[in-house]
Amino acid sequence: SFPERVRIVEVGPRDGLQNEPIQVPVATRVALIEALAAAGLTRIEAGSFVSPKWVPQMAGTEEVLASLRRVPGVDYPVLVPNLQGLDRALAAGVTEIAVFGAASEAFSRRNINCSIAESLDRFAPVVERALAAGMRVRGYVSCVLGCPYEGTVAPAAVAGVAARLAAMGCYEISLGDTIGVGTPLQARHLVERVAQDVPVARLALHFHDTYGQALANTLACLETGVAVIDAAVAGLGGCPYAKGAAGNLATEDLVYMLHGMGIATGVDLDRLCAAGDMIAATLGRPSGSRVAKARQGL
Ligand code: HMG
Ligand code: MG
After folding, report:
1. Which of 214, 221, 170 is nearest to 191 (CA)?
2. To test ligand 1's pocket by mutation, which of 50, 138, 143, 217 has the most ligand atoms within 8 angstroms of CB?
3. What CDD domains does its record include (predicted)?
4. Which residues approach ligand 1 with their CB closer than 6 A?
5. pLDDT tens-digit readout, 213-260
């Protein structure tokens, strides 16, 4: 059966804007995050404390967090790849971080410049110190349904990395189809396999929509008991180190489907669409959300 309620993790201001050709100004990033909170989203990834040499788009995350009007009850997590990133998060008063690993060696090297094993060794002290400081820590596993460099990725490899992150103390593991190549039955089988090692209540889905499968994959997985879904407003998203990766599942499309199925999200679709239309207009291109386009009569 389907969950009664789904918690949405909005990743547009991070996954979306990290992949834009331009560095989106701090004021625009803040306006987007505030509009998303006003729409009822309660977990909004606000940026990344990664190397600005690697991802210049996420420079200025300190400024974003400092000028944000924080809404009580809303979390504003950020990505952190190492202790240097954690120090920046602590200084910025962040209460939730996410470490991000991969199930593919080649992608791990391209994205964070180390092997999977090295990344886990690097994350362990980050998670330990973050937990000691009272933060919550989420873990990502990328390339769960395929890798741009290695092709097929074994579900057992995904489960192994997910279990290590959970054992370190990550309260939730988000399974990333980084390049959006998965299909519904494959996605469901993956979740069932990972759930043998990490309780399904601690899993989240993070599907990119490159091949137009993200909503179908999400639906196929919802009956396994997963009830946390990552999505990006206006279908923004992509990873600079994953060749050909396109946007995330559009939050508008996810909310429309869930509400149509009688599943609560706490999100106001009108206000969400307004936030998406605002950022699409600012970026100068049509929204990547089918629901947003339909409502604009396009
Ligand atoms: P490296 O070059 O091996 O690291 O990169 P390093 O320690 O040698 O540092 C290199 C330089 O970066 C140094 O500066 C450091 O100080 C600086 P220099 O001495 O040359 O002047 N540096 C930092 N500066 C600020 N904050 C930091 C930091 N760390 C180092 N935290 C590193 C290794 C991990 C740093 C790099 O590879 C990196 O930043 N990678 C991040 C890549 C990234 O952000 N990718 C996108 C996010 S992941 C994603 O999108 C997937 C996801 O959405 C899920 C999915 O879809 O599957 C989450
Ligand atoms: Mg992503």
Report:
1. 221
2. 50
3. DRE_TIM_HMGL
4. 15, 18, 48-55, 79, 81-82, 84-85, 88, 100, 111-113, 140, 142, 176, 178, 206, 208, 239, 241
5. 999 999 999 999 999 999 999 999 988 888 777 899 999 999 999 999
The interaxial angle of helices 184-194 and 214-222, nearest 10 deg, is: 50
CB burial of 194-214 (b: ≥16 within 10 Å; e: otherwise) equals bbebbeeebbbbbbbbbbebb
- Distance between terminal CA atoms of the chain? 35
How high is the ipTM of this complex?
0.98
Which residue's CA lies nearest to atom 17 of ligand 1? Answer: 51
Can you give the pTM of this predicted structure? 0.98
Residues noted as catalytic: 239
Only one residue has tokens 């679709």, namely: 269
Q: Is the CB of residue 175 less than 8 Å from the CB of residue 212?
A: no
